[in-house]
Amino acid sequence: MKYAWNMDKMKKQIFRTGFSVITMILYDLIAVHSAYFLALWGRFDFVFSKIPDEYLYVYQRSITVYAVLCILVFWRFHLYRSIWQYASYPEFVRCFASSGLLSVLYSVIVTLVFSKMPITYYLWGMILQFLLILGMRFFSRTWLFVKSSLKQRVNIRERIMVIGAGTAGQMILHDIIQHGKQTGDRVVCVIDDDPNKWHRDLEGVPVIGGRDCILPGAKKYHVSRIYLAIPSASAAEKHDILTICNETDCELKHLPGFYQAIDRDISVNEMKDVSVEDLLGREPIRTDMKEAYDFIRGKTVLVTGGGGSIGSELCRQIAEQSPRRLILLDVYENSTYGVQLELKEKYPQLDLVVLIGSVRDSRRLYEIFGLYRPEIVYHAAAHKHVPLMEDSPCECIKNNAIGTYKTAYAAMVHGCERFVLISTDKAVNPTNIMGASKRICEMIIQSFDQKIKEGKAREIPQLFTHDGIENADKDGTGRIFENIHTEFVAVRFGNVLGSNGSVVPIFKKQIEKGGPVTVTHPDIIRYFMTIPEAVSLVMLAGTYAHGGEIFVLDMGSPVKIDTLARNLIKLSGYKPDEDIKIEYTGLRPGEKLFEEKLMAEEGLKKTENELIHIGCPIPFDVDEFLRQLPLLMQAAYGNRSNIRTLVMKIVSTYHPAQKEMPQGENDVFSNHVDNQNSLRREKLRV
After folding, report:
1. Is residue 494 within 8 Å of residue 597, measured between CB atoms?
2. What is the mean pLDDT of residues 39-64?
3. Pairing of strands 495-497, 528-530
4. pLDDT above 80 for 465
5. Strand duo 225-228 + 300-304: pairing
6. Which of 490, 474, 323 is nearest to 413 (CA)?
7. 678: exposed, middle or buried (Cβ count in 10 Å: 0-12, 13-18, 19+)
8. Backbone angles phi, psi at 556, to 5 degrees
9. How far apart are the C-alpha atoms of 64 and 110, rounded to whole Å?
10. How far apart are the C-alpha atoms of 486 and 407, rounded to whole Å?
11. CA 489 – CA 73 distance, rounded (Å)
């Protein structure tokens, strides 16, 4: 049954094809006769009675034979085998060549066999024959094009504005036109800042003006989607254009900048959604990482806090550079396990060691450093959440300050080459305990560096809350401090987009729930950078380091958190204050309206990268600082409620708000500190 059905279907198809060919042959016979008759008739002003009898005689005796000859030649030129609804340049050439050849042959034969005919008879006959033969064959394609265009005008799914009338914009426009029948998309207008392109058409689409026409153009042409196709534009230019586009209700997509270096066609599929990072208005850091990668390659690298956002990205980039061994240390096992699975799958040859442990535990640190002997340490482990640390200041000091000290000391006495601390701009003139603890971390780095360079590493006290195997100078000879060469540096940067605890993931979750989006203050501003930028800076710091530096990233202009929230709402397809409400909750404990990258007393030195600077360290009494740290540790582990008092004595730039100081806090602890210092100095004199 199925075979018989297929045979019937085949017979019907053959019949249709044969009928189509016969119809086309009959049409060509009529077209050839008509073309030369019209040429002869037109020669005598379209008055039939004026045509001489001898001319009519020649036409009647020759035209039928010529028409049959045309059919044979057309068959030889495959003009009856083409699918004319897809006719293009090759079919045009075949029609032109066959008609031209036949017309010349016809004029020669008629002149030799019969008599001379008017020149216009041959000339116009050839032209009309070509037009009639070609026109019928391209009619089906033309009709399909008109039909699809009319249908597309009625069934347009997306009305698109393309920004950029350059090469990339033209490729995107052409691709949309090519696939418009399937997708239902149509470009309705083009924007370009070049006045020479205004009021002209690109692929039949009007270029309506520059960026000032984006808003009125989107409204006039009912645009639902905007494509930014200027891959060569700077970050600032893209920011300005996207800021304007963001005022519309349109979906935004852009062509990433790396496509400007690709010498090939670009399609719509390569357009990417606009992200919050694209609205920062700052060029991404582009640095030559070869030196940093060469420094890492073949060495044992330890990353503390390796399960976090910065630590995990550090591990990813380090894993690509073939280290001898990569050690990931974190106290939180869930995220750490996820990073372990990812690295094992992507880098099966990597010697990866994943350990669970706390930087507070000096015995665990000594076990790890003694067993694996890391040559480079990236210290990313820290408590970073400002309001939570305000409620638990002792935990902040234990983990950030004392944990950094213990890790740095273990690295120093176990022959580590580089120790890179990840700091924050909140360490500058801190108003919260988290920022103050990170400033203490920076001071620890500077103190270690100074003592090592002075050859006095043995004067750095070892902090531990218990006696045990981690005691560095076990034999009491001090020989372990004779060949210390560790270089300590710190890297300071602002908020990281997309990191754990950053505002962007929080805002996204609030938007998914339908709002409200909570912003602490309408005027609060922050410096932002991306995770890859932060990690690049950290790795470069390990390369540029000579010891004691605080590397600072030039993060450009700060961003208002309120603006960031509104942009994120718009990018999610909603209208701020209409679809998604924004609520201002007030500054949280320890929070500032703005963050600073450097203290007023610090200057800047340039590095090889113009966006990376070195902050000159603020002088402080290193010996006094190292004497205060054991007391700070005792206060933290004693969970003293007035620990901020001691922190204020250590970090002179720390000024917490009075409302954040616990009630009843007084100078008793300060007097205790002074008494302890006096006794210590007395013992040293003895």
Report:
1. yes
2. 85
3. parallel
4. no
5. unpaired
6. 474
7. exposed
8. 70, -150
9. 12
10. 12
11. 85
